Amino acid sequence: MRHYFGVMAPSYHRLGDVPAKRHVAVRDEKGALLTEEVVGAEGFSGRYSIQYHRWAPTRVLKVSEAAPPGPPDLSSDLTLRHHLLRTDKGLEPGVDERDGRVLLFFNSDVKVSVSAFGGDTGGLVRNGGADELHFVHEGAGRLESTFGILEYRSGDYVLVPRGTTHRWVPSSAANRHLVVESPLGVRLPKRYTSDEGQLLEHAPYWERDFRRPTELCDLNDETPTDVLVVVGDRSAVYTLDHNPLDVVGWDGHLYPYAFSIHDFEPISGRQHQPPPVHQTFELDGAVICSFVPRRLDDGPNVITAPYNHANLDSDEILYYVSGDFFSRKGITAGTLSYHPRGIPHGPAPGVAEASIGKERTEEVAVMLDTFAPLTMAAGADRFDDPAYPTSWV
Ligand SMILES: [Fe+2]
User: How close is the Cα of 307 to the center of ligand 1, in Å?
Assistant: First the structure.
């Protein structure tokens, strides 16, 4: 059985004015009836929130075609091999996050992209088909949505639940995100939580590490406003007769949140700790792990570098964020490796020997393992280093 949200750390939250009971008449300061909207998963049986809008979210003036629908273009090189994508070079900034996004990999469970964009306020977007988990590699600012203002900064994972009308408002001139789209949602691993949903003491993070929207946008603006709506391979621009960031109050369990990779508490021991100790998020069909600065294994004669390994049931993407990368020299921040199943991979020559007695690593990296094979998209081609598959000799 596939679940949308199992557990998500931030529990019940409320911002602004909400009535004592749901679905009762509630009015604005001029006596006009507010419009209630339920946003929820799994039909009416999953996690949800209730928003109170100044204007009905259905007040559409016009629907326009946004982009030709259809599946992504495939890479020109679909040979089964390892790839190193040097996305730190040649990623042109778009006018906003969505415009600057380049799709690299996809399967039926996830899409993986990188995006670069400048400092202008972004257009309003609603991904109605997938949760978006953004890893903010560079940049900071505010995510503005119907749930209010969520401040974010470099190193944050920012979760935007599907169906959330939002825009990125950077406070920095250069912005760079790694973006994972998940149609069935992003949640925290069940083994980190009690049956009641509280994070347990052995988890690598706690509720207090998760940041929520802090204030409402509460726009009272009747200017016609465009929202780009995307579901899978289809999209359209909806022109509303008002700005939809008009929510004056909401409450519930579904909303955007931020979690910094620098708040992930690493687990280490005498012997090699395998990647599941680094797990941060769970998706349907994938896991996301965070590698952060940590004390290395300190048992006698241990090799602190990873094994050579074959992931029999998963494809692996590793995105290098900062630090001195442990497994290979010449890796720069923003480089992304892709190791498909069926072909072993491991530390570069000499790394295992050099790792004996090493006490710490300062690397920061994000890993995504998918259970279904990934397909490389055409957007990846420009970053590909063709020398990588034979670089272990
Ligand atoms: Fe690996």
Answer: 8
For the stretch 187-190, contacts whose Cβ atoms lie closer than 8 Å and that sit 24 or more positions apart, written own/partner, are: 187/3, 187/5, 187/6, 187/7, 187/8, 187/281, 187/282, 187/283, 188/6, 188/7, 188/8, 188/9, 188/281, 188/282, 189/279, 189/281, 189/282, 189/287, 190/6, 190/7, 190/282
Report the separation in Å between the CA atom of 279 and the middle of ligand 1, taken as the mean of its atom positions: 14
CA 359–ligand 1 middle distance (angstroms): 21
Number of domain units in the chain: 2
Q: Are residues 257 and 275 in the same domain?
A: no
Residue 296 within a domain:
yes
- d(CA 58, CA 37) in angstroms, rounded, equals 10
pLDDT score of 9 more than 60:
no
Domain that holds residue 293: 265-390
CATH of the domain at 219: 2.60.120.10
The CA 153 to ligand 1 mean position distance, Å, reads 28
Question: What is the CA(309)–ligand 1 centre distance, in A?
Answer: 6
**How many Å lie between the centroid of ligand 1 and the Cα of residue 260?**
23
pLDDT band at 322 (very low <50, low <70, confident <90, very high): very high
pLDDT at 316 exceeding the cut of 50: yes
DSSP secondary structure string, 246-257? Answer: -EEEEEES---E
Structural domain contains residue 25: yes
Is 188 part of a structural domain of the chain?
yes
Distance 369 CA to ligand 1 centre (A): 9
2 inside domain: no
Could you give the percent of the chain with pLDDT greater than 70? 97
Domain identity same for 177 and 274: no
Which domain-ending residue is among 235, 261, 287? Answer: 261
Task: Please tell me the distance between residue 316's alpha carbon and the centre of ligand 1 in angstroms.
Answer: 6
Residue 377, C-beta contacts closer than 8 angstroms, at least 6 positions apart: 72, 73, 74, 75, 103, 104, 105, 106
Q: pTM of the prediction? A: 0.96
